[in-house]
Amino acid sequence: MAETILIVDDDLDILELLKMNLEPEGYNIRTANDGESAVRSACENPPDLILLDVMMPHKDGFQVIEELKNIKDTKNVPVILVTARGQTEDKVLGLDTGADDYITKPFDLREVTARVEAVLGRTRPIKYINPLMHAMGDKFSEEGLQQLAGHLQAAAAIQKKLLPEQAPSFEGFDIATLLQSSTSVSGDFYDFIPLSETRIGLVLGDVKGNGIPAALLMVMIRTALRLLCHEEDTPASILKRINDLVVRDTEADLFATMVYGILDITNSTFTYSNGGHCYPFHWKATSEMGVLKTGGMLIGAFEEATFSSDRCSLSPGDILVFYTDGITETETGSSEAFSKNENASTSAVERNMFYGGDRLATCISKNAELSAAALCDSIVNDLTVFSGDTNTHDDRALIIIKRNI
Amino acid sequence: MNFETTIGKQNISILHVEGKILGNAADAFRRQMNEQLQTGRDRLVVDLMNVPLIDSSALGAIVVTLKSCQRSGGKLVLLNPQKTVREVLEVTQLNTVIEIYDTEEGACAAFI
Questions:
Q1: What is the pLDDT confidence band of residue A340, given thresholds at 50, 70 and 90?
Q2: Is A233 exposed, middle or buried (0-12, 13-18, 19+ CB in 10 A)?
Q3: Contact with chain A for residue B24, Cβ under 8 A
Q4: Mean pLDDT over residues B62-76, rounded?
Q5: Alpha-carbon distances, residue A297 vs A115, A300, A303, B7 (angstroms)
Q6: Cβ of B57 and A329 within 8 Å?
Q7: Which residue of A has its CA nearest to B29?
Q8: Where are the domains of chain A?
Q9: Fold of A164-403
C-alpha cells in the first residue's frame, strides 16, 4: 500500500500545491485545514507522515504535535513542520516538541519531496515492526528496534528463499508465475510441491495483513504444506488440516485464504479445494470462462470450517489463472472515477475504481492465444494502464498454467 | 471513513460505517466495534450500506469481533452489504457464519 501523508495547513493554496507535488510521487495524500481536524484525522487512521503548518488559528502546529505525541496510535508518526517564520527559536521549539524535521516557507518543492523521503526512509523500518511492538506491549524497549530491524531483513531473506525462483516445467504444460511485494515481507505466496513423477501440488494464497505477523504465518503455512502434502490426500483434507493447525496456534485475526490443488499430468486434470480465496479462472479453449469455487471458508479463523474438493479437466489450450486480491483491488489512476458525487449505492467496481475480476477475465480471454509468460505480461501491462502507475502498492501473486495445444 | 453508532431497541448497537475499509482503516473500524463490547453492548449490527469495499484487514476485524461477541453470549450481524462487499463475504464464505440482513428491522429481529 502506498504511504499516506497528512498535510495540514490553513492556507488552501498551499495544501493544493503540496498535494499536487507529492501525489505524483506515489503517496496517498490526506489534508486538514486546522489543528483540530488534523488531530482527529491522525487518530482515526494514523498516516505515515504529517506535514504540519505551525501558524494556524485556534490550535497551532506545536499544540497539534504535543497532542499527537500523547496518543498511543499517533506518537510514532513522524512530523515535518512547515512555517513562514524562520526564527531559530521556532525551530528549536518544534524539534523539542518532537518534530522530525523543519521546512521554512517559501519552500522549494524539490526540497519538500527530498525531506519527506528522507524522514520516511528513517521511520519505515520502525513502522514494519510496530505490529510486533503492539504484541509485546510494555515489554518492548527502544533499544530492541535496531535488533528487530535486522531480524526483519533476515525474515525477508528467508521468505525470498522459500519462494520458488522460477516456475517449474511439466511436460505438456506452460507455466508462468509472478510475485510482487509492496514491502520487504509479503503475505502473498505460492508453491509447487512435487508429489510424484506425474503429479504436482500447487498452492497460491494470501495471508491477511502484512508485516512480520503475516510473513510468519505464511512461513508456517508453507512449511506445514510441504510436510503434510502427500499424494494420497485430497486437497480438501489438506486445507482442513492447515485450518486446524492455524486455528490452534494463532489469534483469531490472523488467517489466510488459499487454493490448493493437484495437477495430474497423465490425464490433465486439476483436483482442488478453495479455502475462501478469490476464484481462480479456468479459461476453456472453447472460449468459455469458468471459476474454481469449490472448497470452504477462509483458513485459520474457525475451528468448525469444512472443505470439499472438485476436479476439472484441462483440454489442450485451456488456461488456469490463480491470483491474489492485490490484482483485482488495484485502484484506478484516472481522476474521473473519483467523482465528487460519490453515490454509495453504486459499488466501487461498478464505477471502475478497482480493476476487478471482470476486467481480469476479459484480459485473459483477449490474450488466451499467448504463451503463459506473455499472458502474465499482458495482465501486468493492463494493470499498469488501469492504475496509471508502475509502482505496486499491494502484494500481488499470479500463477498461469496453460495446457499445450 | 466515518462512523456513527445508534442504540436501538433492546440495547442493540447499530454501527453505521461510511467509506472504504482498507489497510490501517480496519484498526479504527475494529476499535469502534470494540468500544461497544467494552461498554457491555455485545448485540451489534454493522451497517455496511455505505461501504464500497473492504479488504482482508476489515474481515479480520469482523472475525475477531464476531468471536468476542459469541464468547460473551452476544451476536454480530451485518446489514445491507453492497455488491462488492457481499462478493468478498461469499468468496471467503464468511456469509456461512455471519448472518446478513437487508433491512434494519430484519437485523434487529435477529436478536429476539
A1: very low
A2: middle
A3: yes
A4: 90
A5: 46, 9, 10, 32
A6: no
A7: A44
A8: 4-139, 164-403
A9: Phosphatase 2c; domain 1 (3.60.40)
Of B27, B82, B92, the CB nearest to A347: B82
Mutate to test the interface with A, among B56, B71, B83, B95 (most CBs of A within 10 A): B56
Contact indicator for B60, A253 with CB cutoff of 8 Å: yes
Whether B61 sits inside 8 A of A45 (CB atoms) is: no
Chain B: residue nearest A329 by CA?
A: B55
Which residue's C-alpha cell is 487518530?
A43
Q: Among A283, A291, A214, which residue's Cα sits nearest to residue A246?
A: A214
Q: Say if pTM beats, i.e. exceeds, 0.95.
A: no
Q: Are B63 and A301 inside 8 Å of each other by CB?
A: yes
Q: Report the SS3 class of residue A54.
A: coil
Put simply, the answer to whether A44 touches B28 (Cβ < 8 Å) is yes
B50 to chain A: which residues are within 8 Å by CB? Answer: 344
**DSSP conformational letter for A303:** T
**Pairing outcome for strands A4-8 and A28-32:** parallel
**What is the domain-level CATH number for residue B14?**
3.30.750.24
Domain A4-139 fold: Rossmann fold (3.40.50)
The reported pLDDT for the residue numbered A387 is 86
Q: Which domain holds residue B69?
A: 2-109
Partner-chain contact B57 A208, CB within 8 Å? yes
Q: Give the closest residue to A299 by CA, choosing from A251, A257, A350.
A: A257
Chain B hits for A239, Cβ within 8 Å: none
Which residue in A206, A348, A354 is closest to B56 by CB distance? A206
Nearest in space to A257 (alpha carbons), one of A201, A203, A212: A203
Domains: count for chain B: 1
Write down the ipTM of this complex: 0.86
